[in-house]
């Protein structure tokens, strides 16, 4: 009777297409059983299957989910069941309960498919069925056991295949989800997997990860029978104990012989001991004792210095290391509302209200050796040499500023100026070497000497007595492969300080409680500096095309800042700092009204065509050959920030049909030698534009510009009588530089340093990392 009713209903739908009929036919049959669709079952809508008794004609039908109490057949069914067949939505059908053999419920089928696949170790096939059960039927009574069986057996399969990490993850998930499931066996399996994983980490020498894993296991399985925890705790303890005993022996030998290497070994071993087992008895006390006897600080750097010089504009490493080896006559301490704040090395300074006289008052009795043997007559002679064009230390801005140099007794030097000068101390940032005190020219005068150079490691050792009881007797610079490698070494304790961070790394490290991150108060100015006689780079139109063809905003925000917001980092339109915020006095040389050129590759191509036409026309008038457009050699320092930027610039310029060759400079070199490259990527410390403008743009500066407008702008700047004149003329010079492009401005970056919180006295708002090195103190 049921099948007659069904066929009548189907026949009455005269509009059904052949496809529709075929689709409906698979939803019911007059005999047999439905085929197993396998994984394709999950592509069907949820449904139940009613199977009829042979006495009622047999067959089966797929129906919409039945609304039965508890989603099961009644214990004593009577009467009729009303349902709707899949594909015949408009009509209700009825069957007597006495004609129904069974109902194959949807969730039961899912459970059956899951169980069968788990039994056959088809875990990828079982997973989607189990996922649907967890999502749609979380309260099924058998689900907990089914899920536990899946996790346990799949973990076993993975363990046999050597997939220790995934196997452990599944076992731990099983323990969290169903702790009662085969608890003893599961805990034994977790112990075995953790043992294998710990051994693998130890074999790979990944001690940090091993310790983190062990610490987590101790926390998660406290009081539970995971035997691997005790085993590896004992292992780490024995390793730590061995290092502690070795450190004590090295320390004893160092005290006996005063050999620095023994102290270095003792420091390394004691810290390894504490790293392996922070709670080891006497570990912290040993580290403190060694730090008191031989304080040593490891500094992670992106570049080691080849020729240390604290006054270098274009070489971060030389400027940093130079502060350890040399002192400067006038050392910049920070930025103030009217330019830099300078400290006179040998005493104090005075300037008359009309700014026409600048005096240096020496106080040698307050200075340590060899500075206390300063000779006022010698300093006066050195200042005079800075005026002589034939001298190696000649500096034209100083020559243009000073009219006379005299002595008022042996302890006072008076400089009469040609015109009022706003910042005469900035004009005489001279490196003070040993020749100032009767020593060898170029010999160091700072607290430290370069001791040992071992590959990427340079040791600077203290000479003479410590200024303070905690002053490091040794500062070790360790070159890291990249900024991220440096961060890893800092977090692992291999270095105590990082002198320069990738901006994005600085943002992330600020969240770490064991590390302090601080910003240098003065940003670095990044630019491309022409450094060869490349015929096309000599043309302003071509240089302008390169600027338009460089998506500086994209490189800065995407490549260097990694899409993070870092205040103060921005694209520039000139070679001077723009300040870190609105109305920042630091940006006194930057005209905020001059917007950086946008990225316009079509305009760049047009300008290149115009430049070619101009050069062809000029060559024709002169009856010369048109210069060949040779590949542009772009040089950069050997560190990953500059490398990343230059690789991005190269890819963008190649879209302009230019051939670009990247040249990585040797370690310690920041600017190419003559003939080595055509453009140099430079991160310059343009901290005092009123002075540094000539050092960047002048004919003897980095750019070596002979442009008449640039030269005029520099001369007018040096004739400034007050801060208003200086600022106005710097803005004029910014305008000139933006049009003439003696350098190609890129962006300014706010540089940061980071150090372990156990290192005290580093200070904030320091211009140079080693500005307060004599006050550093290790504290555990």
Automatic annotation (TrEMBL):
Entry-linked InterPro entries: SBP_5 (IPR039424), SBP_5_dom (IPR000914)
Keywords: Signal
Residue stretches spanning the membrane: none
Limits of the Solute-binding protein family domain: 478-679
GO biological process: peptide transport
An MF annotation (GO) of this entry: peptide transmembrane transporter activity
A Pfam match: SBP_bac_5
Signal peptide coordinates: 1-23
PANTHER family noted in UniProt: ABC TRANSPORTER SUBSTRATE-BINDING PROTEIN, PERIPLASMIC BINDING COMPONENT OF ABC TRANSPORTER
Protein name: Extracellular solute-binding protein
Organism name: Neorhodopirellula pilleata
